[in-house]
Predict the structure.
Amino acid sequence: MYNFIFTSEFKVVITSLKKIALSITLLAACVHTLANDIASVEEILEQADRFRLPTHSAQVMTQVRLFKTAEQIQRNSPHKESLYEVLIKPGHRSLILFKSPRQVGKKVLMVEDSYWLLMPTSRRPIRITPMQKLIGEASTGDISSLTWSEDYQGVIAGEGQFEQRPTLILNLTAKVKSASYQTIKLEVDRTTYQPLHAYLYLTSGKLAKEAIYKLGDQKESPRITQLILLDRLASNKRTIIDYLAITPAIIPDRVYNPAYLVRNPKLEFELQATVL
């Protein structure tokens, strides 16, 4: 009698283990098929970056608008707005020039993992982090030329859907100190790898922002022209970043030196003639 009970339970255990093993095999096969059917994470991120930023030196005119209430969003009446001229160059180099009347003369310089704030009233560059706020939820890292393909590594977590478009879901982890967010859950178009949506997490693991990427109406070279940042730490706050114009430009290497910027506070006027 006891032998019969043991044997029956043993058979149940064996059957359950077989089902689990089959499920794992099928799951592995699905992941393997998905991985073989699409590009590598690196290739996907490189293509996603092409929708966001030019690969050459350029001047990017950027407008940032902050909305603090649902009423402001509904009326499209921002609480605050600012204009920036961003000079980007390959090699993790960006220079943000503040163009709004009350902020003219201020600059933020990014070179690889280092950030500096330069004030018109000071002769000393101030070290800052990529999470330093410029306006609303827009940080220096959001405005400068940080790239996913160079700054993050990750895995394909699966497939999903955003605004009725099939997507790939990528879980990204920062591999450089200058990255604005420690981890990102990024959704890209399943076919074109156009970035559509992302969740942005702090080092603590807390969800900081939700990002929505909007494509412009360019036909030959489609590009992201608007980034919507939803504050997940405070309700209703929304920051909209509009990339108004991207123009190829000749930018001297010396402008990415904080000492040179201190000695040449009128740099923004010098560079206007170099835009191609």
About this structure: The chain has two domains: 1-37, 43-274. The chain is about 25% helix and 40% strand.
